[in-house]
Amino acid sequence: MASRRKGRIAAFQALYAYDITPDSDLDAFLWTHDESKPEPEWVNFSRLLFRGTLEQLEEVDKRISDHLEHWEISRVQRIDLAILRMSVYALCFQKSIPARVTIDEAVHLARDFGSDESYRFVNGVLDSIFHSLDEVS
């Protein structure tokens, strides 16, 4: 598995855990995530996504809320919300990662970890946010 993909999975799972228990420790989670010693590249990428998302959580949640049609953010499934939060952070604050890569990876995560309809929901919200970023630029 590619190191960035491992990093995204770990960060998304840590964000999900954080949503349930806000005192979650990403470092402890990463070390139990993989029995072997973590590869520094994916661990550092996970930390960047996790910490960056939390640092920008208010802005990230506002963008998500602004692009939910007939939904409140509190009604979004926690798995979908963790994927959206991490991905919106990447779209808005990690310009070096192509938007299509961020959206594609989010859709893969939603397919693997979410409900049957999660990937469509995640794709729709992220696509809407992505297009709104083009309008702002």
What does this structure look like?
It contains seven helices and no strands. It is mainly alpha-helical. The longest helix has 19 residues. It is globular, with a radius of gyration of 14 Å. The model has no long low-confidence stretch (mean pLDDT 88).
Structure annotation, total helices: 7
- % residues in beta strands: under 5%
Order of secondary-structure elements: HHHHHHH
Shape: globular
CA gyration radius, whole angstroms: 14 Å
Give the biggest sheet. Answer: none
The CA-CA distance between the termini, in Å, is 34 Å
Number of strands: 0
Task: Report the uncertain regions.
Answer: none
> In percent, how helical is the residue content?
over 70%
Give average pLDDT, whole number: 88
Determine the structural class based on helices, strands and strand pairing: mainly alpha
Task: Give the SSE map.
Layout: H1 3-20, H2 26-33, H3 40-55, H4 57-66, H5 78-93, H6 99-113, H7 118-136
TL;DR of this structure?
It is built from 7 helices and no strands. It is mainly α and 137 residues long.
